[in-house]
């Protein structure tokens, strides 16, 4: 169990296994379970009924909403948002009669600032790019580049989003966010931040 002089909050109905690291100001709510050797950064929120699997790395300021399981093989970088009941996987062809060893789990990485909407599914072995936005109910079956807005089954490119979440409108391969003023450039379907005014 965790130390008693903790500077984070764990609801009494939740379990935190030995060998975990939990950053300051993190809150772990009802009926959640953080498995052995997981690492959770500062200022994170884990909602009700969240599982963080063994050896999982969670960055700082990550929000994991109710009923999400972050299985071994998944890494969440800083400022990631996981919507309610979204799903991660870590095996491509699971068979009950042929269990998969942990070293054979497919890796999934969710990069800084990305958002995954409620009830979306991320098939294992893929990377969700920086500040990408996955629409609710989508099924992600391939990598999602930085700043892409994708949704559908399977998830398809529907546009581009700013770091603040506002949809971008590119004109001659440049866009300025009407909400926060950040400026972007698009070259061959790759978007980069060029000014953070």
Features:
mainly beta; ten-stranded mixed sheet; UDP N-Acetylglucosamine Acyltransferase, domain 1; 197 residues
Walk me through this protein's architecture.
With 197 residues, the chain is mainly β. The chain folds into two domains: 9-164, UDP N-Acetylglucosamine Acyltransferase, domain 1 (3 Solenoid); 165-197. 0% of the residues lie in helices and 35% in strands. It has no helices and 26 strands. It has strands at 9-10, 15-16, 21-22, 27-28, 33-34, 39-40, 45-46, 51-52, 57-58, 63-64, 69-70, 74-76, 81-82, 87-88, 108-110, 115-116, 121-122, 127-128, 133-134, 139-140, 148-151, 156-161, 167-168, 174-176, 183-187, 190-195. The protein has a ten-stranded mixed sheet with strand order 1-4-7-10-13-16-19-21-22-23, with no helix packed on it. The chain has a six-stranded parallel sheet with strand order 3-6-9-12-15-18, with no helix packed on it. It has a four-stranded parallel sheet with strand order 2-5-8-11, with no helix packed on it. The chain is globular, with a radius of gyration of 18 Å. It starts with 8 loop residues before the first strand and ends with a strand.
């Amino acid at each position: 169990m965790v130390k008693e002089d903790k500077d984070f909050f764990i609801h009494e109905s939740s379990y935190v296994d030995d060998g975990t690291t939990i950053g300051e100001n993190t809150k772990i709510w009802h009926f959640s379970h953080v498995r052995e050797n997981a690492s959770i950064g500062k200022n994170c929120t884990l909602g009700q009924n969240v599982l963080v699997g063994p050896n999982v790395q969670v960055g700082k300021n990550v929000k994991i909403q109710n009923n999400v399981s972050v299985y071994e093989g998944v890494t969440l970088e800083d400022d990631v948002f996981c919507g309610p009941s979204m799903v991660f996987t870590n095996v491509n062809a699971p068979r009950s009669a042929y269990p998969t060893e942990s070293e054979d789990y497919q890796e999934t990485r969710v990069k800084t600032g990305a958002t995954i909407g409620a009830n979306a599914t991320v098939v294992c072995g893929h990377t969700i790019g920086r500040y990408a936005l996955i629409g609710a109910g989508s099924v992600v079956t391939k990598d999602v580049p930085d700043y892409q807005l994708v949704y559908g089954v399977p998830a398809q490119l529907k546009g581009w989003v700013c770091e603040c979440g506002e949809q971008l409108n590119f004109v001659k391969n440049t866009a300025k966010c009407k909400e926060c003023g950040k400026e972007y450039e698009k070259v061959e379907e790759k978007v980069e931040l060029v000014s953070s005014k």
